[in-house]
Amino acid sequence: METVLIVVDDIAKREYLKKILKNAYVLIEPSVIENAVDFLKQKIADVSIVILGLENVEKEFDFLNKKNKEKNLKTIPVLMISTNISSEYEIKFLKTGILDFANYSTTPEIIIHRIGTLIKLKNSNNLISKIKKDFSSSLYTREYFFTQAKKFQNTYKNDQLDILSIEIENFKLMATKFSGTFENKLLEAVGKEIKNKFENTNFGIAGYFSEGNFGILTKKLNNYREIFDSITKNLAKSLETISVIFKIGIYTLQFEETDIQNAYHKANVAKDRIKDNFNQNFCIFDEIILKEMTKEQQIVGLMESAIEEKQFKVYLQPKFDSRTNTIMGAEALARWIHPEMGFISPSDFIPIFEKKGFIPKLDYYILEEVCHFIKKIITKKITPVPISVNFSRIDINQEGLTDKIVSIADKYGIPHTLIHIEITESAYIDNTKKLVEIITSIKEQRFEIELDDFGTGFSSLNMINELPIKYLKLDMSFVQKELSDTNNRKIISFIISLAKWLNLHVIAEGVETKEQVDKLKEMDAYYIQGYFYSKPLPENEFLNLLEEKGSSIPLPIRNSKKNLNFQVKKEGMPYLLLVDDVEMNRAILKNIFEKEFNIVEASNGKIALEYLKDTKDKIELILLDLVMPIMDGFKFMEIIKKDEKLKEIPVIITSQNTEHSENRAIKLGAEAFLAKPYNPNIIMHNVKSIIEAVKLRKEKFQIQENQKLLKEAFEDYLTGTLNSRGMEKAWKEMPYTCNGFFALYLLDIDDFKKYNDMKGHKQGDEILVEFINELIKITRNKCLISRRGGDEFLILAKDLNSPEEAWEMGNHFCQNTLIDCSIGVTVFKIKPSNMEEVERIADKAMYKAKENGKKQCALL
Amino acid sequence: MESFFKKLENYGVDMKEIENRFLGNKEFYMECFQMFKEGKEVKNLKNALDSKNYDQAFNEAHTIKGIVGNLGLKPLFNKISPLVEALRNTEIKDIENLSDSVFEEIETVLNII
To answer: Which of A200, A395, A659, A741 is the most exposed place for a label (fewest CB within 10 A)?
Structure first.
């Protein structure tokens, strides 16, 4: 909540303002009005706006002038409030930097709205760096936190101080997962808790920086754990839905340590160490972290010059084909040999390079070196093999990756097929859509893609299906030692058969023993990279080995992925079931239909039936072959046409046209017969029009069904005329006026009981039907007739010239029915929306007719 | 690859019809052709005829006829069709007369590639 400083000297007016603003803002006021500017100076960090209203105009000018003299007070907006103000003063005030005026006589809403607008204006008005408080959390902003931290440090010179770096775990994820307002709600709640625990109890100051990161400077405490446990508990209550987890790094400021930003950085480094460690929430900055930090800084300091001075060397680890012992490729690895520090391990520098955004530079450098090397191989007239270069997920997020790879390869005139791009699984997690897009564009340039580290981390079948990958690199290290263990073997053999199924080559990495090679061979995996064959070699040694062993490049796999019987369900697309024993027939049909349908294949009727019985997919149409082993098309048709659920699915029979089976097929209930060999246009047209026709048929049937139901709901079961519900509906749908009068008749059969008593119920029912038929005849279908219930009927007539005509017509009914009845009638010019009242009058009239001696009509 | 299709055309394949059926995807046609070449149907038909299992032979011949039709191999199609009918009605004399020339024709076709 924003804080408003009220500088108003009239008590009544002040109390009024406090009353209307107290729910929207935090309100503060100086104890002595004359000291208002000094008070503002003290509270500068909190105050968002001043409301100024003094009885003496000169005093108001005095306040404004004093305020404007102070540089950092000047930007605080002021809303003038008064009972009335002359335009002469208004201009004068505007010159002193007053931003807006409000009148006590306006509504509270307007005053609140003006305050809100001014605060917004202030925030947007290029004053961002001067904002003291973060909008959502109400804690200090980053900049202001560090200014305040200095002051805090001076105040508590003699105390030991801790600086805390705090991060809300998975903040980004939470913010996107929940609604837009959730982020604010979360920050507000956390800000409030931190404020309570640290600022309000005078232990320290707190700031919110960005993306779920907070900083706290506090007198050293020994119960951080307790404090944050309590915060977490309170948050669970106030946010209800989710639990908030904090990762906290703590650094104790050294005596006379003045660089607080650097101190915060250290706390931050400590925090980052436990970021992915789910059971550790606190980390104190210690000697070990300090050492690592120093090392990291050292590497960062060395990395720029390392490329310029060509300290990175490319080593090549050959990939062997274990069947022929020839080389089928190599992976390029970066080796850093520093003139003073010697060999620096990739595991030391790669994570730092990634963190510092330096990795693209290195990857492009390696790519260039590789191109250079391939050119060398070619000029030496040795058959080259493809060399794979690693690209980090950070590269993938950079603009123009594909273009850059192309331009480097083309600079050396290297055929693109000789360069493979290795990516890791982890690249897939961050931004799936973008990754697929970029990798596809690289592949379109004929660079092959190798997926590194398959099986070590986040493996998704979807990923290997979505990405145009050709090689799967299976890291043996995660199963390495125990290839004899059957479970591990099962995993590997599963991955290998999966790869085969998806038409991918598998390269086993990290292979160290002959036993492993043999086992892999048994599982049909022949491409091997590892110490058993060769360690990573410098360029010249690799060249010698290549010359000695010779090369063999894997042939392209004959079937492309898209023609395989592996398909991801496409949401929202209709399903088509192909039943044919000949694979080629199915392949041709699939080729025709797969863009618009999800295709399910079955090689005979039995398999198709089993599928239909189990599946929840809605099959739109079946394309059926007739001559098949196990269960042929005829038998299949017979069965599904007897099945209540399946008989609705339309079937098109496809067979060879010389068989005269067409007639038989149609007799079995097929929608159409199409001859083989297929004509794609005809078959597509037929499938579509039949699906449409079936849909229409279903809709028509549904409409008929609905009408039937409707009719039943509004019709009297016995007489077929409207029931009272039907009458009510008709009443509602009728226009309010007609050409003259409406008349509502209520008819009651005289002494109906006697029919029942004399001749039994059936007789009574017959009387009712007869009576209705007579009425229909007399009214000549011009009136609405309904059975009100029992032996009572309602007739609604319209376009009558006068009430007399209505009464005469009623008498006409009485005289001309064979069954005697009494009638009450009432007339009206405008139809009331509710029939009830009119009905009651007609009812009264009917009783009058009965009293008057029955078999007559009475008008009311 | 081009000469493969030239040979096919010379053999009597209507390339227009093929392009139409395979939606212009010649590679896919080649895959299907390969499927036929590597498939067991011809061998099965031979075995069924040798063992005089005419029901089985009918099924195999019928399948081959379908495949051949889809591949647009007209001369072979014209030869195998009467064999299928003969098998359907188990006219043993006709079967024996027809089958040799069918296998010869198959041989010719498979030698195209």
So the answer is: A200
The tokens for A839 are: 């009905």
Amino acid at B59: N
Which residue spans within A777-856 are E strands per DSSP?
A: 784-789, 792-800, 821-830
A contacts of B84 (beta carbons < 8 Å): 658
Which of B25, B65, B67 lies nearest to residue A584, judging by beta carbons?
B67
The verdict on A347 touching B (C-beta cutoff 8 Å) is no
Indicate if the pLDDT at residue A129 is higher than 60.
Answer: no
**What are the residues of chain B with a beta carbon less than 8 Å away from any beta carbon of chain A?**
20-23, 25, 27-28, 31-32, 34-36, 59, 62-63, 65-67, 69-72, 81, 84-85
DSSP string, B66-84: HHHHHHT-HHHHHHHHHHH
Closest partner residue to B36 (CB to CB) among A558, A584, A677 is A584
Cα–Cα–Cα angle for A694, A697, A698, nearest 5°? 90
| Residue B87: C-alpha distances to residues B36, B49, B60, B61, B82 (Å) | 21, 10, 10, 8, 9
Nearest to B84 by CA among B109, B67, B72, B71: B67
> What residues of B are in contact with residue A632 (Cβ under 8 Å)?
none
Decide if A442 contacts A411 (C-beta within 8 A).
no
Pairing of strands A737-749, A651-656: unpaired
Q: Please report which helix (H) or strand (E) contains residue B10, including its range.
A: helix B2-11
Report yes or no: A646 at the B interface, CB cutoff 8 Å: no
A727-753 pLDDT tens trace: 888 888 788 888 889 999 999 988 887
What does the alpha-carbon distance between residue B33 and residue A623 come to, in Å, rounded to a whole number? 23
From the list B32, B59, B63, which residue is nearest A587 (CB)?
B32
**What distance in Å separates residue A489's CA from the closest CA in chain B?**
32
Give the residue from chain A lying closest to B63, CA to CA. A582
* DSSP-derived secondary structure letter, A339: T
d(CA A528, CA A116) in angstroms, rounded, equals 68
The CA angle A48-A52-A57, to the nearest 5 degrees, is 155
A258 touches chain B (CB under 8 A): no
- The ipTM, to two decimals, is 0.77
Counting Cβ atoms within 10 Å, is residue A715 exposed (0-12), middle (13-18) or buried (19+)?
middle
Of the candidates A245, A233, A280, which has an alpha carbon nearest to the alpha carbon of residue A174? A245
> Which among A1, A584, A20 is positioned nearest to B64, based on CA atoms?
A584
Phi, then psi, of A160 in degrees rounded to 5: -80, 130
| CA gap A259, A320 in Å, rounded | 56
Distance CA B70, CA A587 (A): 11
Q: For A276-300, what is each residue's pLDDT tens digit? A: 777 788 999 988 888 888 888 888 8
Chain B residues near residue A681 by CB distance under 8 angstroms: 20
Residue in chain A closest to B74 (alpha carbons) equals A677
pLDDT in tens, A679-713: 888 888 888 888 888 877 777 777 777 677 667 77
Residues of chain B neighbouring A563 (CB-CB closer than 8 A)? 28, 31
Please, what is the Cα angle at A238 between A233 and A243, to 5 degrees?
50
Q: In Å, how far is B97's CA from the nearest CA of chain A?
A: 21
The one-letter amino acid code at A421 reads I
Residues of B in contact with A584 (CB under 8 A): 32, 35-36, 67, 70-71
Ramachandran sector of residue A624 (left: φ over 0; alpha: ψ -120 to 50; beta: rest): beta
Coil, strand or helix: which one is A408? helix
The angle subtended at Cα A778 by Cα A774 and Cα A784, nearest 5°, is 90
Tell me which chain B residues have a C-beta less than 8 angstroms from the C-beta of A582: 63, 66-67
Q: Which two tokens stand for residue A460?
A: 């998704």
Whether A65 and A37 have beta carbons less than 8 Å apart is answered as no
Q: Which two tokens stand for residue A156?
A: 């508590």
Band of residue A567 on the pLDDT scale cut at 50, 70, 90: very low
